[in-house]
Amino acid sequence: MTEINVGIGELKVSSDKDSVIVTRGLGSCVAVCLYDRIAKIAGMAHIMLPSDNGRDADHSARFADTGVPRLFEAMVKAGANPKFMVAKIAGGARMFDLPGGSQLLEIGARNCKAVIAALESLKLSLAAADTGKDYGRTVELSVASGELRVKAIGRGVTII
Asked: Rounded mean pLDDT of 9-38?
């Protein structure tokens, strides 16, 4: 099995059925996974922040408002049909809990909300999610099946 690693702010697409697309260390970041179940094409973006506010075109995969559409476009370019695409997401945790709370601490929830809005604007429904809570995750997307394995230390593996 070949691993295709997705770093922070990156996106990757594959049709190699002997591969798995992986991103590690999701805290408040969100892994957006798209899968065409007919063409067997998979893609993943590691979203860091909700919006780039038009400031960072060179790194647009980092942001929900630009990264999700870029992932969608890359999937279509690779031969995926939007009619057969499903979306799954994981991550968006609240990693720190400081006294007094702060909107800055809610970046995971804001990332999830922005990702879902971006998916809705592309008319893609969310098939599954493993988001929130207070722990990090590693995710693996199977190109052959579209199965998303979510791993968390001390919590085992969840398949969505």
From this structure: 97
d(CA 61, CA 7): 10
Considering its fold, how many domains does the chain have in total? 1
| Set 20, 22, 29, 75: catalytic member | 29
pLDDT in tens, 74-91: 999 999 999 999 999 999
User: What percent of the chain lies above the pLDDT cut of 90?
Assistant: 80
How many helices (H) and strands (E) are present in the chain, helices listed first? 2, 10
Structure token digits, residue 35: 């899968």
DSSP assigned state of 115: H
Q: Is 29 a catalytic residue?
A: yes
pTM given for the model: 0.92
Which domain CATH number covers 107? 3.30.1330.200
Separation between Cα atoms, residue 3 and residue 56, nearest integer Å: 28
Task: Specify which residues 141 forms β-bridges with.
Answer: 21, 148
**Domain range for 36:** 2-159
> Which one, of 112, 76, 77, lies nearest residue 94 by Cα?
112
Beta bridge partners of 105: none
Model confidence at 6: pLDDT above 80: yes
